[in-house]
Amino acid sequence: MASSAVVLLSGGLDSYTAAAVAARDGFSISALSVNYGQRHVRELEASKAVARALGAARHLELELDLTRIGGSALTSGAIDVPKDHPIDLAVIPSTYVPARNTIFLSLALGWAEVLGSSDIFIGVNALDYSGYPDCRPEFIRAFEHLARLATKAGVEGRRLTIHTPLIQLSKADIIRLGLSLGLDYGLTHSCYDPRPDGSPCDRCDSCRLRAAGFAEAGATDPLILPRR
Fold it and tell me: In this structure, are residues 83 and 47 in contact, taking their beta carbons and an 8 Å threshold?
């Protein structure tokens, strides 16, 4: 019987690819998505499609209203999503959601402990990204250490591993990897501020990083086809 891995699944390109790597490596996928009040809630529909495509054993969607905390363009209507500006990794953009990956990994950790799983997959990337501090390798290492101290499983000697198969890949390399695994990126959603019909804005950091990745990979993004 395959070992179970909890996979944080947003419905975006990166999390889909990370989940596919987990499946390739023989894990049974327990997908976890979080409805945290994000303005790009369209990604949750994508996460359902992606989970089905991957044959996830289970898919849990949790409700967590981070709009009450705010502080991010993704959770507050009072803050605009930045568009058409140079991406500077030295400046943390307004789309950073305070402590988001710490919160999400904590939820994944709790579920993994209940499931008896020692493995969590997350699609963080430290190369082609928007400069978020909770996407860095040192953050992942620190959280792994915390997990071993903070859980019954850790105290009893079960070593938890947080898998970050994309962390040192460029966006183009992630896309190449996903295409080699037969992924349909038409199922995904990346845009931070989609149009009313749910289509991508093509101007936010996430859209632009995605477009540059497909161009560098020499591939066509299936999401642009309906709008040609």
Answer: no
Tokens of 39: 């303005």
- Residue 188 in tokens: 């995904």
CATH fold label, 4-227? Rossmann fold (3.40.50)
* pTM confidence score: 0.94
34 DSSP β-pair partners: 62
Which pLDDT does position 162 carry in this prediction?
97
Is the pLDDT reported for residue 111 higher than 60?
yes
Closest CA to 125 of 7, 5, 221, 17: 17
Mean of the pLDDT values across residues 155-181? 95
* Long-range residue pairs from 20-25, CB within 8 A, at least 24 positions apart, any chain: 20/54, 20/178, 20/181, 20/183, 21/121, 21/163, 21/165, 21/166, 21/177, 21/181, 22/119, 22/121, 22/163, 23/54, 23/55, 24/181
How far is the C-alpha of 24 from the C-alpha of 47, rounded, in Å? 18
| DSSP per-residue string spanning 44-89 | HHHHHHHHHHHT-SEEEEEE--GGGT--STTT-TTSPPPBSS---T
**pLDDT tens digits, one per residue of 33-51:** 999 999 878 899 999 999 9
Residues 6+ positions from 61 with CB-CB distance below 8 Å: 32, 33, 34, 35, 44, 47
Quote the pLDDT of residue 129. Answer: 67
- Give domain limits for the chain: 4-227
